[in-house]
Amino acid sequence: MKILITNDDGIYSTGLKATYDSLKNDFETELIAPSTQKSGIGRAISLFEPIRVSRVSAFDKKAYSIGGTPTDSVIIGIHSILDQKPDLVVSGINLGENLSTEAVTTSGTIGAALEAATQDVPVIAASLKLLDEGNKFHEGRIDVDLDFAKKVLNRVVKGIDKNGFPSKVDVLNLNIPEDASEGTPIRITKLARKIFDTTVEERKDPRGRPYYWIDGGHVDNVEEGTDVDVVLNKNEISITPISLEMTAEVDLEIEKILP
Predict the structure, then answer these.
(1) Nearest to 70 by CA among 96, 51, 86, 83
(2) Which domains does the chain show, CATH number per domain?
(3) pLDDT of the chain along its 259 residues, tens only?
């Protein structure tokens, strides 16, 4: 398989290097990722400014640094840089878990994955639940143990190579605890509704004007068997199948919408 590797943590991210190291000996890979940290940007696309592309020596091969978003990286990679569509896109390994419907709509890692799926390419979004939350938005290389995560990712990709991508699935959202090991179970899960209890903290700048930080801790009440439950509560590995089809499966009549 030919695999396009991207992320939202930037081209020099420790997680991107781990993904490359996990796959380079078994598959043909191309590294195409944002030039800087783009976490939390979702599926944003650059429509009103040009996008610069640079060739860089990121690891032991040339890579493409994209002056835009994760979504931009996937689009430019598929339609401009590569001579044909990849067989698979891997977005990650993201430094920090991507769980619940909140992550699906805000994560740049999953934003890139959704774009790849829209371009008819199977995709894995891979993320690591960190022991140190302070490492989530670190720029560049950090000291994180990704050895086991690399093994899990390699195993999942080899499974896809052997068995094909699951039918009626557009994205496989893989989340691995940093301290997982060979005995850690791997569960197929569904998305939890929420992962954070959203809070807003108001502060004052030196001139007395208010400014705000959006924050929030993890939710306490989590549905059994969801990705949040499996990864955060049970400290196990989660694979969540995601579809681009977001239409609610309800029998809704127009008379119930219009007055």
Answers:
(1) 51
(2) 2-194+223-245 (3.40.1210.10)
(3) 999 999 999 999 999 999 999 999 999 999 999 999 999 999 999 999 999 999 998 788 889 999 999 999 999 999 999 999 999 999 999 999 999 999 889 999 999 999 999 999 999 999 999 987 666 666 656 778 899 999 999 999 999 999 999 999 999 999 999 999 999 999 999 999 999 889 999 999 999 999 999 988 888 889 999 999 999 999 999 999 999 999 888 888 888 888 7
Termini Cα distance of the chain: 54
What are the helix (H) ranges across 60-194? Answer: 70-76, 100-106, 108-118, 147-163
Q: Is 146 exposed, middle or buried, given 0-12, 13-18 or 19+ CB atoms closer than 10 A?
A: buried
What's the pTM value of the predicted model, to 2 decimals? 0.92
